[in-house]
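seq as requested:
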Amino acid sequence: MLRGENNDTGGTNVSFAIIQTALDNGLIFGLVALSLFISFSILDICDLSTDGCYMLGAVGVAVTISGHPILALPASMLAGICSGYVTALLQTRFGVPSILAGIIVNTGLYTINLMAMGMKTSLNVVGTSTIYDLFKALNGSEFWMTWSRSVLLFVLVGILCVLVYRFLGTRLGLSIRATGDSIAMVRASSINPGFTITVGLCLSNALTGLAGCLIGQYNKNAEINMGTGMVTIALASLIIGQTLFGRGRMLTRILGVIAGSIIYRFIIALALRLNVPTQAFKLVSAVIVAVAIAAPSARQMMRNKKKEAEAIRERRNAGTGKGEHHA
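C-alpha cells:
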C-alpha cells in the first residue's frame, strides 16, 4: 500500500507526498523485481516462492523490534537465502519441477512467517528506531528531513545493483547465466548446474527477503499477507523495464528493472488519484503486465502493416505508371 495520500480534492493532481512515497516504494520493490530478473530472466526458473519469501522480511522486523534495525537487514537476507536453498534443493536433488517447488516452499513459508512473528498476524514497529530513523538523525536540515529515506534507499539499491552486476561478471556469475541459456552446455563444461541454480536462487531470494525488511521498517509494520501478489508486481516491473530498455548490456538491464519498478509504482500512484478502488489494484497490475508483454508484438504488427501498406501503394503506383505508358 502507498502512504502519503492527502485529503484534498485536486482531481488527478498527484501530491508531493505520493510522488515521494511512490519513488521510495519503487526502489524497494525494485529489489524484488531484480530478484525475479535473476531467477526468471537469467536462470529461466519460475520461482513462485517470492510471495512467502518477501514476507520473510518479518524476521528483520522482529529483529528491529528487539532494538537492532541494522542487524535486521542481513538477518532478513539470511532468511531469504534459506528459502532459496530449500527451493533449489527440491529442484536439483529431488527432481521437483520449479513451479511445484516454488508453490511448496511458498505454502510452507506461511507457517514459518507466523512463527517468526511470534504466531501473530502483524507486527508493529511504531516507537522503535528503524534504519530510516538512524539515517535521518545524521543531519537536521530541512532537505535531509524530507529526503533522507529516499537518499538511503537510492544508496542501498545502487550498491546492490553494482554488486549484482559485478557478481554476474565473475566466473561463477557467468556460469549462472550460462545455466539459464543451456544446462547441457554447462554440464559439458564440467560445471555442476545444481550448484549454479542453488547459488542463483539463494541470491535472488536474499534480495526478496531484504525488500520485505525494508518495507516493514518503512511502513513500521508487517502483516502476514503483505507478500500476496508480489510475483505479479515484480513481473510487471520486470517486463516494463525490459520493454523500455530492451535486452542490451547487463548493467542496462539491471537498471531497467529498477526503473520499471519505479514506473509501476507511479502508475499505481496515478490510479490512486483517479480514485481507483484498492480492490482493483490486482486488475490494474494484470492489465499492466498484459500491455507490457503485448507491446513489442503490437509494435511489430504495426511495422508489418505499415510495410504491407507501402508495398501495396508501390504496386498501385507501378500499375498506374504502366497504364499511362501504354496509353
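Strands lie at 122-124, 221-223.
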